[in-house]
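G.,

No rush on this.
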Amino acid sequence: MNIDFSKATFRDFENIPEYDIAQRAEIFYDFLGYMESNGHMNYRLKNNSGCSPIMNVDINSTQKDYVSFVSNDYLGFTQHPKVKQAAIEGIQKYGSGAGASPLIGGHFVYHDNLEIKISSFFGRKQEEAVVFTTGYTANSATLQILLQKEDLAIIDMAVHASVYEGCVFTNTKTFPHNSLESLEHILKTSENRFRTKLVIIDGVYSQDGDVSHLKEIYALVKKYNAYLMVDDAHGVGILGNTGRGALEEAEMLDKVDIITGTFSKTFANVGGYVITDKKIAAFIRFQSRQQIFSATAPPSTMGIIKAIDLIDEEPEWREKLWWNINYLKKGLNNIGLDTGITRSAIVPVKIGDPNITGDLGKLLIERGIYTNPILYPAVARKDARIRMAVMATHEKEHLDKTLNAFEDINKFLQIAKKK
């Protein structure tokens, strides 16, 4: 089988029917070599420093400092002294690990405190929160146990991969991103055909940075007697008057049936959470395979509790983040670059052509700017882009260097689309 590497994506190598394991691995290894040879291998680069606006990265065995837009540490809390100290104190008091799954001895007081903290952060009660070791499994493990062959998941096409994995045991229907008409059609035609209908959307979407039509979707969900689950991993800490995310902005914190999210972005650690009715939460705790068979989060989790507090204690970080977002977007748009419809800390530069996007990523690296080229299957084949995550700790000089790089590269690649 011949695969044109110049047009191939990672997805093309997932399953080649006539190739066994070794053959698939071999041709994929050759593809990685091709990407590296043309400077498009901006993946799994070795970072020598922590999440920050300036990161030291090893590229082709050369270590160099770059202005970085690859971290979802939006408020910069991974480097906040109070967050670090809380994590250190957790380890000093309880050790480096939990040693068991939460069901059989791995549920500690710091897990209990975290469930109290995150549920109260969203205005809910303690018994309504369940914490997981990653945001990915908060989605996948929860959905796998809640939805079975008698049920239906109705999914916005742009949701995270963890949602799709969580729905492998149930029936699924997808609707075009944020399409209310398509969603209503599915809800209407699915009436009385399934035991449970669960609509699953994001608050803020991870590639375009846009926000769900939450109020309108909620109205449709209730009209057709379905449930609504919202993953607001990219909205919490950024949107809303007090940083409670897209749900706060839409005045829906107390209405959504299931809220999920991650501790790995704004909350500067690792882990995930599910907030729902206390009886459903209890069902998840005792039925989810990840809760039963996987060790739970380590004591450094105590850093998350402090990060949650800082959302209210130090709102200046969110203010600085928004200044940075607006400044960078305005500068990119003035060059003529397409940043889409983002309303968050995710700022895409939409190119379309995957090869040009790869070249752009390479040229940005050469100019000291570390970004993520995003290609199919993460986005549509003709919707490739450079994805940048803005941080509160970026300084104006970092943003100016980035804008100068884009302006310089545009002279060669002619990537500007609008004025």
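When you get to it, here's the other one too:
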Amino acid sequence: MPLARRVINYVNIAHLFDHMFMLIFPTAVLAMEADFGRSYGELLALSVGGFIAFGAGSVPSGWLGDKWSRRNMLGVFFIGIGAAAIFAGSTTSLWMLAVALTLIGLFASIYHPVGTAMLTAHAESLSSEKLGRELGTNGVWGNVGVACAALVTGAIAQFLGWRFAFFIPGLVSIGFGIAYLLMVPDHASPPRKGKPQIKVPRAIAIRAFAVLAVVGVSGGVVFNAATIALPKLFSERMHDLIGTPVGISLLVFVVYLAGAMAQLIIGRLVDRYTLKQIFVAVSFLQAPCLLLAGFTESWWLILPCLGVMFAVFGQVTINDTMVARYTSDEWRARAFSLRYLLSFGASATAVPLIALVYDRGGGFDMLFGVLAVLGLSIFLSALVFPGGSPTEAARDLQPSATSAMRSEVGRA
């Protein structure tokens, strides 16, 4: 197997682990209320530190990946997040649990700036024309992790207890980390292949990243709130139909997995159509589906939830493609770190938002109404995103800027 393909395989596995570990607690918390004698909202609030670390840690992680070693940082991710999960399963007090969840978030922050930069570099070394497909495939792995968090955690918590829901994944991650360090040598990123790209004009890059900033903040809150709230939402509104933790977890798994297919589909589409075309179409789904999810019950609830998951998961691939196309490889880990700082930093507000709305009687109808407003802002941002490819978008600039663009050749 070529080294590039081997690296991509481990990066995909790391993406699965990253999202799975961040969502173990929101499912396990359903089985923890009796042990700690606290309400759902009070226990869920303990994960705020982890989600803050998930975003804030992306900046130093991206810097270390570029300056030290992306390969070694990914090894730290595998082993560190596994050890933090084992610590979480061993906790006996609320403050220890909060510390453990913060450590999980800190180690989880390594993956996106480092792993995505590794993925794009090695994917381009294999085929510069199939970057979108590789990003989409990688996205599916990450969202299978989201789905597995609900299913695996629910099953383990029901049959072995919530502590083993942290222990078992932690040991598996450490095992993969050791295998990864043995099988992947430390070396510089591969050189890029394919046609040289026209340098992106400053005005176009600023416009694209301004849109990305808005979408990163709004999308981060929507993604995190929707994925965290879904197990509890199904537990409340479908309890009479599916009354066991495993049953609820299986249903959440199916919805997440179906939504995860969006990234595979979107990944292939962005190689064929312009980013703006795909961006507008996907973002159009978010607001109405979120609004419907807030007011629907019984089996009908599955339909808007599928639409929400398709939209929020597909948006991730679109955002990553923006960064990959508008930055050069030597800056890519740091560019991804800033993108995820915005997204994950904003997503940390989802936890207190859910806890506040839920514990004060607002219910999920109010919560999903707020998320629908954020979904509308994403759609409006898509409408002003530069059209065409980075170079085609430059044609909308003044002639002098377009002329300067044509005279400079470099990496996008």
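The longest strand covers residues 197-198. The radius of gyration is 21 Å.

Enjoy the weekend,
O.
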